[in-house]
């Protein structure tokens, strides 16, 4: 879409015309450099991205998918894609989170976090509480809260004992336990 | 002109390994030609359509090792129809019928059927080594035939092939009597293998030096294999997920530590980053590390691993390492010669990518760097100029900016000056791939300075025919030129058609050359095959000479038009 910066109006954008928004207009075929194809003429998806623009775009243009670009072997591309799908398949997972004493539950996407510290920080922010530090031998120290989760077998486990990847694939729901129930599980 | 008996010359020629040198030797005189051809054991054919198997056999009756390449390079990126060609069957059939004692076959980008593998396995009693790179067309059945019939098999190396391996019993087909394996690489297979058979095979292969597993080999099997093969030099781990505090993990650590000879590590097709510490004991010996299939490895865990690898010469990694991570590489890996940084998310938002900063850091820290493949978000002229100054030893320099026409983001200029600095500084440069916003100017520099250049890849560059002309006129040693989406037309193509006979091949797609121009080349140069690839659903090629050609691939050949082209390929 040609943008007329001189008078600050994007007249073309508001122009009524027949045709899908963003499609090339006929006069664009005869550009200043007729031999040079712009990215939009090449790309399959037809997203306009004028390679001839003189001004610098601050936001990156929409990534038009050009056949055979970037030049990566199909084998490698397929491997990475398969991995992405797999990772997005197992989690991308919303689980319920309950906090003892809270009026209602929340839901979080476990896939949004890459590690335990990230998850715990998010929980602390969401519920305005402190969970404390994890210790293999002592559980969670420093507060009256302990994060637990229900696993595939239906058992309630302490968050943090197993590998992160194992956790997100087996966690069905979270419960942040409070007070007297947690005392037996660790340090004072 | 022979002052020595033939046997003496043969003996001398034996010590000449390089193909180029042997080719030169054969041109000295008739007598040397004769002696050379009978003593030749290894032949490399860069384009399987440049010569026929019959002529190969006629000239080199003592042939033991053959390397063949099939499809053009751009086939890797889906630019060539799947049925274009590159079939190995006619080669194997001809060799089998000739009585040649083939021992080694190395194929790249070829179509390999199960039938050809079966024929191969049954035709050559002394067959020792099969290496398939980026091939397709075969299944586990073909592998089973090789396993079962090649009694002295030393090497089965499958790299990045598309294999249909729904049935995983091929490994069980190695007979009990097979104890000669030196190298086994099946990392690219997606199916299960018989783990018991694998363990037994490794147990009875005392010479096994290289073992690369696929994803479906579980951890406890890996541990058992390592215990049985502590002499390994090259290891490809398939799945590497375990709980670091578990018994299984401890056993694995112990097994890994026993493998004091491992210098090359790859795979990690599935990885849990916390477990990498088990690998640290062997990191100090590593000269080659390939983590380019392990997107799960990034951040601290990755850099910590690299900090242990002080002897690294070759590193293949994903761009998730980031510029900071490359800084760690720069300060740790002083022996680094080859770096490849692949994109982990080619069409994504580019959060995890590398920029010019990472490259500059590596160039400053690794003075021995001579080979680069670098996928990045952006590049600047200033960075390239610095890199050129820091590393004048580049032999291979391949830069891929993910947005193909992106200018220098700081100055908004094309990257002509940056690449110009590279070609001017790196006098030994043999291979170059360009990207980013580029005008004719960069080609002027390439033509002027890149005297040793043999292979050039160009995409979305240049303003006019001048660009291509600078290259064709200037680069005397050019062998392979591949161009896509550039405004090069007939006048560039036709300026010096004789040049193409000095080259292996020329690829041009989405350029401005027309059917008429291509026909002219074909007419003037009968020693070239000029192929037009047209993948649209036309039943008949449009005969209009002014029509632009979508894809053209031309190559020199001694045997004229090939007979196995599909309908989508028209040989002029």
UniProtKB/TrEMBL annotation, chain A:
<dbReference type="GO" id="GO:0009734">
    <property type="term" value="P:auxin-activated signaling pathway"/>
</dbReference>
<keyword id="KW-0804">Transcription</keyword>
<keyword id="KW-0805">Transcription regulation</keyword>
<dbReference type="Pfam" id="PF02309">
    <property type="entry name" value="AUX_IAA"/>
</dbReference>
<feature type="domain" description="PB1">
    <location>
        <begin position="92"/>
        <end position="179"/>
    </location>
</feature>
<keyword id="KW-0927">Auxin signaling pathway</keyword>
<dbReference type="InterPro" id="IPR033389">
    <property type="entry name" value="AUX/IAA_dom"/>
</dbReference>
<protein>
    <recommendedName>
        <fullName>Auxin-responsive protein</fullName>
    </recommendedName>
</protein>
<dbReference type="InterPro" id="IPR003311">
    <property type="entry name" value="AUX_IAA"/>
</dbReference>
<dbReference type="GO" id="GO:0005634">
    <property type="term" value="C:nucleus"/>
</dbReference>
<comment type="function">
    <text>Aux/IAA proteins are short-lived transcriptional factors that function as repressors of early auxin response genes at low auxin concentrations.</text>
</comment>
<dbReference type="InterPro" id="IPR053793">
    <property type="entry name" value="PB1-like"/>
</dbReference>
<keyword id="KW-0678">Repressor</keyword>
<dbReference type="GO" id="GO:0006355">
    <property type="term" value="P:regulation of DNA-templated transcription"/>
</dbReference>
<comment type="similarity">
    <text>Belongs to the Aux/IAA family.</text>
</comment>
<feature type="region of interest" description="Disordered">
    <location>
        <begin position="16"/>
        <end position="63"/>
    </location>
</feature>
<keyword id="KW-0539">Nucleus</keyword>
<comment type="subunit">
    <text>Homodimers and heterodimers.</text>
</comment>
From TrEMBL, chain B:
<dbReference type="Pfam" id="PF13516">
    <property type="entry name" value="LRR_6"/>
</dbReference>
<dbReference type="GO" id="GO:0010152">
    <property type="term" value="P:pollen maturation"/>
</dbReference>
<keyword id="KW-0927">Auxin signaling pathway</keyword>
<dbReference type="Pfam" id="PF18791">
    <property type="entry name" value="Transp_inhibit"/>
</dbReference>
<dbReference type="InterPro" id="IPR006553">
    <property type="entry name" value="Leu-rich_rpt_Cys-con_subtyp"/>
</dbReference>
<comment type="pathway">
    <text>Protein modification; protein ubiquitination.</text>
</comment>
<dbReference type="GO" id="GO:0010011">
    <property type="term" value="F:auxin binding"/>
</dbReference>
<dbReference type="InterPro" id="IPR001810">
    <property type="entry name" value="F-box_dom"/>
</dbReference>
<dbReference type="InterPro" id="IPR041101">
    <property type="entry name" value="Transp_inhibit"/>
</dbReference>
<dbReference type="Pfam" id="PF18511">
    <property type="entry name" value="F-box_5"/>
</dbReference>
<keyword id="KW-0217">Developmental protein</keyword>
<dbReference type="GO" id="GO:0009734">
    <property type="term" value="P:auxin-activated signaling pathway"/>
</dbReference>
<protein>
    <submittedName>
        <fullName>Auxin signaling F-box 2</fullName>
    </submittedName>
</protein>
<feature type="domain" description="F-box">
    <location>
        <begin position="4"/>
        <end position="45"/>
    </location>
</feature>
<keyword id="KW-0833">Ubl conjugation pathway</keyword>
<dbReference type="InterPro" id="IPR001611">
    <property type="entry name" value="Leu-rich_rpt"/>
</dbReference>
<dbReference type="GO" id="GO:0019005">
    <property type="term" value="C:SCF ubiquitin ligase complex"/>
</dbReference>
<dbReference type="GO" id="GO:0005634">
    <property type="term" value="C:nucleus"/>
</dbReference>
<dbReference type="GO" id="GO:0031146">
    <property type="term" value="P:SCF-dependent proteasomal ubiquitin-dependent protein catabolic process"/>
</dbReference>
<keyword id="KW-0539">Nucleus</keyword>
<dbReference type="InterPro" id="IPR032675">
    <property type="entry name" value="LRR_dom_sf"/>
</dbReference>
<dbReference type="InterPro" id="IPR041567">
    <property type="entry name" value="COI1_F-box"/>
</dbReference>
């Amino acid at each position: 879409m040609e943008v007329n910066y001189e008078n600050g109006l994007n007249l073309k954008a508001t122009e009524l015309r027949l045709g899908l928004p963003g499609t090339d207009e006929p006069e664009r075929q005869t550009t200043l450099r007729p031999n040079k194809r712009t990215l939009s003429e090449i790309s399959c998806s037809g997203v306009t991205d004028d390679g001839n623009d003189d001004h610098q775009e601050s936001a990156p243009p929409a990534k038009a998918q050009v056949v055979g670009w970037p030049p990566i072997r199909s084998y490698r591309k397929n491997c990475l894609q398969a991995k992405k799908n797999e990772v997005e398949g197992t989690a991308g997972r919303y689980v319920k989170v309950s906090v003892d004493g809270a009026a209602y539950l929340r839901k979080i996407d476990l896939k949004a976090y890459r590690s335990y510290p990230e998850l715990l920080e998010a929980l602390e922010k969401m519920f305005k509480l402190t969970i404390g530090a994890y210790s293999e031998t002592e559980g969670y120290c420093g507060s009256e809260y302990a994060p637990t989760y229900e696993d595939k077998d239906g058992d309630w486990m302490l968050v943090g004992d197993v590998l992160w990847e194992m956790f997100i694939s087996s966690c069905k729901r979270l419960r942040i336990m409070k007070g007297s129930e947690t005392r037996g599980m660790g340090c004072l | 002109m022979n002052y020595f008996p033939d046997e003496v010359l043969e003996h001398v020629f034996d010590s000449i390994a390089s193909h180029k040198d042997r080719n030169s030797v054969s041109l000295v005189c008739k007598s040397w030609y004769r002696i050379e051809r009978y003593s030749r054991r290894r032949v490399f054919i860069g384009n399987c359509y440049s010569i026929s198997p019959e002529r190969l056999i006629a000239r080199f009756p003592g042939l033991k090792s053959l390397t063949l390449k099939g499809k053009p390079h751009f086939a890797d990126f889906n630019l060539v129809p799947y049925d274009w060609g590159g079939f190995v069957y006619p080669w194997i059939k001809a060799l089998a019928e000739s009585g040649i004692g083939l021992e080694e076959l190395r194929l790249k980008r070829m179509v390999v059927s199960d039938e050809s593998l079966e024929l191969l396995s049954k035709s050559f009693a002394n067959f020792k080594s099969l290496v398939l790179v980026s091939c397709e067309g075969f299944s586990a059945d073909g592998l089973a035939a090789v396993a079962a019939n090649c009694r002295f098999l030393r090497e089965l190396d499958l790299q990045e092939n598309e294999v249909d391996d729904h049935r995983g019993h091929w490994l069980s087909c190695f007979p009990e009597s097979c104890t000669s394996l030196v190298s086994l690489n099946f990392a690219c297979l997606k199916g299960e293998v018989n783990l018991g058979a694998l363990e037994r095979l490794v147990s009875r292969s005392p010479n096994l030096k290289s073992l690369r597993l696929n994803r479906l080999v579980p951890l406890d099997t890996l541990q058992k294999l390592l215990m049985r093969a502590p002499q390994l030099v090259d290891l490809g781990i398939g799945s590497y997920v375990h709980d670091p505090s578990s018994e299984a993990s401890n056993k694995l650590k112990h097994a890994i530590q026993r493998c004091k000879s491992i210098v090359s590590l790859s795979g990690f097709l599935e990885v849990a980053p916390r477990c990498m510490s088990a690998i640290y004991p062997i990191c100090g010996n590593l000269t080659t590390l390939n983590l380019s299939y392990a997107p799960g490895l990034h951040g601290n865990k990755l850099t910590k691993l690299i900090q242990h690898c002080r002897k690294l010469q070759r590193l293949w990694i994903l761009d998730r390492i980031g510029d900071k991570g490359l800084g760690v590489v720069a300060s740790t890996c002083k022996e680094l010669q080859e770096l490849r940084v692949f994109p982990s998310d080619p069409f994504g938002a580019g959060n995890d990518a590398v920029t010019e900063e990472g490259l500059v850091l590596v160039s400053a820290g690794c003075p021995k760097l001579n080979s680069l493949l670098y996928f990045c978000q952006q590049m600047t002229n200033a960075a390239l100029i610095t890199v050129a100054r820091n590393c004048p030893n580049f032999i291979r320099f391949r830069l891929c900016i993910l947005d193909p026409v992106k200018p220098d983001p700081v100055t908004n200029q094309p990257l002509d000056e940056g690449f110009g600095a590279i070609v001017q500084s790196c006098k030994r440069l043999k291979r170059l791939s360009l990207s980013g916003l580029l005008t004719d100017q960069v080609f002027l520099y390439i033509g002027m300075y890149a005297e040793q250049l043999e292979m050039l890849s160009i995409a979305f560059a240049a303003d006019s025919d001048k660009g291509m002309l600078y290259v064709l006129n200037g680069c005397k040693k050019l062998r392979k030129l591949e161009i896509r989406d550039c405004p090069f037309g007939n006048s560039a193509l036709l300026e010096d058609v004789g040049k193409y006979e000095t080259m292996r091949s020329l690829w041009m797609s989405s350029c401005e050359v027309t059917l008429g121009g291509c026909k002219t080349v074909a007419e003037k140069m009968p020693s070239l095959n000029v192929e037009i690839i047209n993948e649209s659903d036309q039943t008949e090629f449009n005969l209009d000479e002014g029509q632009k050609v979508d894809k053209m691939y031309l190559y020199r050949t001694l045997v004229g038009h090939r007979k196995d082209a599909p309908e989508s390929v028209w040989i002029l």
